[in-house]
Amino acid sequence: MQADIAGFQPTRESIPPPNVNYQQKTVPGLPPNAHPLNPFHFILRAASVYPDKLALAHPDVKHPAFYTYGVWAQRIQNLAYALIQAGIRPGDRVAVITPNSPMIADAHFGVLAARAIVTPVNTRLTPPEVSYILEHSGSKLILIDRDFTHLIGNTNIPTIVCHDTGRAGDPYEGFLSAGREFSAEKGWAGLDVELDENAGAVLCYTSGTTGRPKGVLTALRGSYLAAIGNAVEGQLNRESTYLWVLPMFHAAGWTYPWANVFACATQITMRSVDYPLIWKHFLNSGVTHYCGAPTVQIGIVNDPAARPLPRTISAVIAGAAPTAQLIGQLEQRGIKSVHVYGLTETYGPCTRCYDQPHWKTLTLEQRAKLMARQGQSFATAQEARVVYLPENEDDQELRDVPKDGRTVGEILMRGNIVMKEYFRDPEATRKAFQGGHFHSGDLAVWHPDGVIQIVDRSKDLIISGGENASSLAIELELSSHPHILEVSVIGRTHPKWGERPMAFVILRQEHESKWKDNHDAFAAELIRHARTRLPGFACPEWVQIVVELPKTSTGKILKTNLRKIVAKL
Amino acid sequence: MQADIAGFQPTRESIPPPNVNYQQKTVPGLPPNAHPLNPFHFILRAASVYPDKLALAHPDVKHPAFYTYGVWAQRIQNLAYALIQAGIRPGDRVAVITPNSPMIADAHFGVLAARAIVTPVNTRLTPPEVSYILEHSGSKLILIDRDFTHLIGNTNIPTIVCHDTGRAGDPYEGFLSAGREFSAEKGWAGLDVELDENAGAVLCYTSGTTGRPKGVLTALRGSYLAAIGNAVEGQLNRESTYLWVLPMFHAAGWTYPWANVFACATQITMRSVDYPLIWKHFLNSGVTHYCGAPTVQIGIVNDPAARPLPRTISAVIAGAAPTAQLIGQLEQRGIKSVHVYGLTETYGPCTRCYDQPHWKTLTLEQRAKLMARQGQSFATAQEARVVYLPENEDDQELRDVPKDGRTVGEILMRGNIVMKEYFRDPEATRKAFQGGHFHSGDLAVWHPDGVIQIVDRSKDLIISGGENASSLAIELELSSHPHILEVSVIGRTHPKWGERPMAFVILRQEHESKWKDNHDAFAAELIRHARTRLPGFACPEWVQIVVELPKTSTGKILKTNLRKIVAKL
Fold first, then answer.
1. Number of CB atoms found within 10 A of residue B97's CB
2. How far is Cα A367 from Cα B320, in angstroms, rounded to an integer?
3. Which of A172, A562, B40, B493 fits a 20 to 30 Å CA distance from B271?
4. What is the pairing mode between strands B241-244 and B289-292?
5. Contacts of range B327-333, beta carbons closer than 8 Å, 24 or more positions apart
6. What domains does chain B contain, in order, with CATH numbers?
7. What residues of chain B lie within 8 A of the CB of A419, using their CB?
8. Please, which residues 171-230 of chain A have a Cβ atom closer than 8 Å to chain B?
9. Residues in domain AMP-binding enzyme C-terminal (chains A, B) (predicted)?
10. Pairing of strands B452-457, B266-269
């Protein structure tokens, strides 16, 4: 990477003026002792303190690009002016359609600097899905990567195409340069300050396993506080190097685009989840942190390039609980798991499973069992609790379940790290906020130590012989079988028990041949394994070996699709 | 400390109930996605996540006391209820008069939990000064340490005396226990939530080198954000152990009472600045962080117990710039200096001198010169700038001085880390907030790298032959003389030049004898030393060797007193 950095020249318009001033306009009437919280401000401080530090590296492309904090801040300023010149007004939505790249990192600051709302679009969606999002969000402008223009077809919305080169001649670079010209060197002081810290920040559409995606609108105040929470929980600092494995379009990258800049860390963007490349950076680029769902972590530890690391890397894991096996495999390679939990509606992570000093004396399996729990409210989050499910629609009274580790209820959140609203959907917003809390839809128990543990999404719970069987708990136990790489469990209709669990299993490559023509024997073995660990009603009745599992664009297993398969059996 | 911990039993009422719940009341009407920022909340999270972790240790007294987060939180809750039972209502002031001890740590949370305002009183003041503060603040209740009751005489204000034992029979313990009884186990949910994040948090009286002390009232929002800023800048985390060298009554302990709890760190309180004791803790108690003015740091490095430490300790230094010699001496012992700057009006530190990667190649003296600067706005602070001094009273236009490292102006701050007001002094508040910024009264230059450097308090500037000579800059240069322990420079009337600098010097013990009967020779030598480093108008005309320097109760040198001495010469 070092040689590439030395060989890269940012465009002329990316170079800040020699007398650059990182202070925003002084707004008459703004009190001296209050300033609206806004995560975009982090770039002003980082650029002021560490102008020459590497902020953003994009090395693994035909035209690698590397930006110091000083240069990156200028590009962000240029973007803000370019957006304003293009007619973007406060509160307007700007769609961004790109894999991880400098452009989407720019947007998380530049769009906010223009007082507009970032609308990141998942690049794995289909054209009709993208079309729905563009229409529903009312996006006024699209920033799109050259490789994904097919997603938008012949849209009427003004579009800036990025060739991801960082060089003059790239239309996105032209757009930035025009912004610099339009600014007439008025600099940061020429941009209006957003006075409302509750103004919209990011509009993310949930990948929703069923129905139309919903637009989750977050606020500036929440983004500021969530980003600080993530920086603190991850212990990010100016020595950190963060590798973008998680797509930045996913829940605003869990606020890490801002958390990293708050910490004055270095960020490396990769266009795709490429395991050998991840290992190249782990081994050679000083990576200290990354985020990813367990399914990505499984890919990382099982890549042939995987080897013990010279120093510890922190893996922030969310989306599902990491298994004992995964935690063990990560640790063997020098990767420390931090298990967090949250939803797009909670700016990504808002709880963390805090490891306790006395866990050090436990076995890996004991420790992993404790670590698989979703935890407690993290640094800047206010409240996460588990309440009894309402008896009926009108039942709005919230009663906490006892902290007995057994009684199942729904996880509710409150506080600054809860979204502003579902965009243009007051009915869904009202429903989600019933009783003055956000309803996560996740079912959980509350342990005596105050830790919350998800038993399932409400719709994934299996009612087997009148008992509630958590598909998640079953998956955790089954995954301890040494031949299993990945497993998903759903409920299947059963004449006697109502429902019974069915397991879909991907075998580890090295064990595939053994069971190749012997699926029944494997099923029998796995059911035996389950019986030693689970109550009878939670043991799978059926086991099916598969080559892959259906997943959403963000790596979550699509149980809806598995249910469709089962319905046809 | 370990044996003491094992031998300590908190009072029965300090033990939380087995089913303790750390959630506050759900307030009807409070939106699901916003919660007023309040640093008191940090204790709820820390106690929920690490109930059994050592939170607060008070080991160096006849009756040592040690509190886990779980027990401490219960004591804080008891205090809140006890205050309410004693008639304390939202916005009331509660005076706390004690050296560093658990009581004042309790107060920073318990008083806020009762929605009242902490008024810490400097224990080094005289009875008339304390009387003025109690009257001006309108304190409704006094929490006072047994050793300081002489400061309040026969006050009419209800008073709780603490014997600092942590044992049953201590009146303060009785007060806490009564709070537990009054709460009737309603717990945290029985306390009203403060809905206004701009409500008062702490009322600190400045030790003011001239005139009546002013009451600096800070807000909850600012306290929350400043504490997070300090935790982040100090890299405090759950592995940290913070030693209370700084008095907690000084600017709310620079918000560290909250910063440490935000980080889930351990705090050790010491009743006085006792250098051998400090070294005992450095060497045996796992201390990782402490704060103190340079004068205290000088005492630490020069103590006979000083020796190289097995692992690095962070010293957060403010109040004056550390000299090259001090930074070097600290480093020799394994203590890393973090130079920050601020005032009581900015919640303590609000800027930091960030060391840069390329400084590693510099000599200690070069590096120390750069590090002695006051720096740039820190994590959660908004803006610190240097503007031209107003030409007259009505001149309110703020114009930044050029970043040339030469032009002198005044440091101004804006944002969340600026006090709410001067309590009951609208005229002083108006004056301090002219032009929508807080006027620090500190004169500074702005360097090309964006770093602010104080040249002097406006009243300490020496006008020598029409030139502005910074007493601070002169002190920094004189202190490089190897025989000098501490030095202070003021302006003295001069028939020809108007003013000329006069230096008051404390010699290092090992050099005292050499100059004992030869003050004139030392003066000549020091003036020669100065001529090689300073312009003529800034060289001291007079040098006086003294045994000690007059200081405020918080360790700042009282130049007013030096001026009085000079006036009589």
1. 28
2. 48
3. B40
4. parallel
5. B327/B364, B327/B367, B327/B368, B327/B371, B328/B364, B328/B368, B329/B301, B329/B302, B330/B297, B330/B300, B330/B301, B331/B364, B332/B301, B332/B308, B333/B301, B333/B306, B333/B307, B333/B308, B333/B309
6. 2-24+36-289 (3.40.50.12780), 299-458 (3.40.50.12780), 461-568 (3.30.300.30)
7. 33
8. 198, 219, 221-222, 228
9. 474-556
10. unpaired
- A87, HSE (Cβ side, Cα atoms, 13 Å): 7
Q: What confidence tens digit (pLDDT) does each residue in B101-122 have?
A: 999 999 999 999 999 999 999 9
Neighbours of A369 (CB within 10 A): 17
- Shortest Cα distance, chain A CAs vs residue B262, angstroms: 7
pLDDT classification of B3: cutoffs 50, 70, 90 = confident
- What the block records as the tokens of B7 is 């031998």
- Cα distance between residue A402 and residue A87, in whole Å: 54
Where helices occur in A487-557 by DSSP H, the ranges are: 509-515, 519-531
List CB contacts of A173: < 8 A, sequence separation 6 or more.
A11, A165, A166, A167
Answer whether B354's CB lies under 8 Å from B422's CB.
no
Cβ-Cβ contacts under 8 Å for A205 (sequence gap 6 or more) = A119, A121, A122, A133, A136, A137, A213, A214, A215, A216
User: Which 3 state secondary structure label does DSSP give B59?
Assistant: coil
Cβ partners under 8 Å of residue B337, min gap 6: B297, B315, B317, B322, B326, B327, B330, B331, B371
B302, amino acid identity: N
Q: Which of A22, A24, A33, A376 is the best substitution to test chain B (most B C-beta atoms within 10 A)?
A: A33
Backbone angles phi, psi at A16, to 5 degrees: -70, 155
- pLDDT tens figures, A325-338: 899 999 999 999 99
Q: Which residue has the tokens 């075998």?
A: A507
Residues of B whose CB is below 8 A from A22: 450
Q: Which contacts qualify for B189-192: CB closer than 8 Å, 24 or more apart?
A: B189/B21, B189/B23, B189/B24, B189/B25, B190/B25, B190/B81, B191/B24, B191/B25, B191/B77, B191/B80, B191/B81, B191/B84, B191/B113, B191/B114, B192/B25, B192/B90, B192/B115
